[in-house]
């Protein structure tokens, strides 16, 4: 047997769980958003110092996607994906980073976009360090 208070408790827990997920998601987005600039700098340094790309290719890529890292979460994610898969960098013939642009376009929200961009960048840095 159930009484009406059980339904209220389930709704309350659901709302509470949703709020907790939202709070954790927001913290995670903020962390990834904050870490992308330094991680991108590391990625570019590895590409250059290991001879994967020339400084000219890096500059060309940055000129195309923008020299400044965007402030908005979704824009920062798109900027990151654009740089990771930029033709001037991808043209070196090595697997620098997996193709993420189609997945980026399929993302439904900025949380998914920043998560994808961060994971792709982090994965590429780890692969290039080996």
Essential attributes:
mainly alpha
| Low-pLDDT segments | 1-13
Count of individual helical segments = 6
State the shape.
globular
DSSP summary, beta strand count = 0
- Biggest sheet architecture: none
State the end-to-end CA separation.
60 Å
The helix content is: over 70%
Order of helices and strands: HHHHHH
What fraction of residues sit in β-strands? under 5%
Helix/strand-derived category reads mainly alpha
| Overall average pLDDT | 82
User: Radius of gyration, Cα only, in angstroms?
Assistant: 20 Å
How would you explain this protein's 3D organization?
The protein is mainly α and 130 residues long. Helices cover 76% and strands 0% of the residues. Helix 1 packs across helix 3 (73-84), helix 1 (4-49) runs parallel beside helix 6 (110-129) and helix 3 (73-84) packs parallel to helix 6 (110-129). The longest helix has 46 residues, at 4-49. Residues 1-13 have low confidence and may be disordered.
List the helices and strands and how they pair.
Layout: H1 4-49, H2 55-65, H3 73-84, H4 87-90, H5 101-106, H6 110-129
Helix pairs in contact: 1-3, 1-6, 3-6
Quick take:
It contains 6 helices and no strands.
């Amino acid at each position: 047997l159930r009484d009406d208070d059980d339904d209220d408790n389930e709704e309350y827990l659901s709302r509470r769980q949703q709020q907790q997920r939202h709070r954790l998601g927001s913290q995670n987005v903020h962390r990834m958003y904050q870490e992308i600039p330094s991680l991108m700098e590391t990625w570019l340094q590895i590409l250059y110092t290991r001879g994967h790309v020339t400084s000219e290719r890096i500059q060309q890529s940055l000129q195309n996607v923008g020299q400044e890292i965007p402030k908005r979460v979704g824009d920062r994610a798109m900027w990151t994906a654009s740089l990771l898969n930029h033709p001037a960098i991808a043209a070196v013939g090595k697997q620098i980073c997996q193709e993420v642009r189609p997945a980026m376009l399929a993302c439904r929200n900025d949380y998914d976009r920043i998560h994808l961009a961060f994971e792709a960048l982090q994965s590429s840095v780890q692969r290039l360090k080996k």
